[in-house]
Specification:
By secondary structure, this protein is mainly alpha-helical. The protein has four helices and three strands. It has a three-stranded antiparallel β-sheet, covered by helices on one side. It is elongated, with a radius of gyration of 19 Å.
C-alpha cells in the first residue's frame, strides 16, 4: 500500500475522531458504534489503537509527510556552496515546525 491508496481509504472511511470504550468498542465522536475489537488478546488496547488511527489522524500524518517531502526536495536542491549553514537551518526548521504542529 502506498500513501495515495491510504489517503483514498481514509477519505472514504467514517470521519474521525473515534473513541474507544473501556472494553473493545470503537465509536464515532457522536457515539455511533463503528466496530468491536474482540476475540483476540488485548482487546481494549487494540480498540484504543484502532480509534487513534482514525481517518482524521491518518490524513494529518499524510499531510505532514507531504510537507516533509517538499522540505527535503527543497533542501536537496540547494547548492550547498551557495547557502550558508544558517540558511539551511531556516529551511529545515520551517519543515520541522510544520511537522511538529500539534496534536493529530
Amino acid at each position: 500500500m502506498n500513501t495515495t491508496e491510504l489517503k483514498k481509504l481514509a477519505e472514504a472511511a467514517t470521519p474521525g475522531p473515534w473513541k474507544a470504550s473501556d472494553r473493545s468498542h470503537i465509536y464515532t465522536a457522536d457515539l455511533r458504534l463503528l466496530a468491536v475489537a474482540q476475540h483476540c488478546r488485548q482487546t481494549a488496547e487494540n480498540a484504543a489503537y484502532i480509534a487513534a488511527a482514525n481517518p482524521a489522524a491518518i490524513l494529518k500524518l499524510l499531510a505532514i509527510n507531504v510537507e516533509l517531502v517538499e522540505a527535503l526536495k527543497t533542501i536537496s536542491a540547494i547548492k550547498f556552496s551557495n547557502w550558508s549553514d544558517g540558511e539551511m537551518r531556516v529551511v529545515a526548521r520551517a519543515a520541522l515546525a510544520k511537522a511538529e504542529g500539534g496534536e493529530l
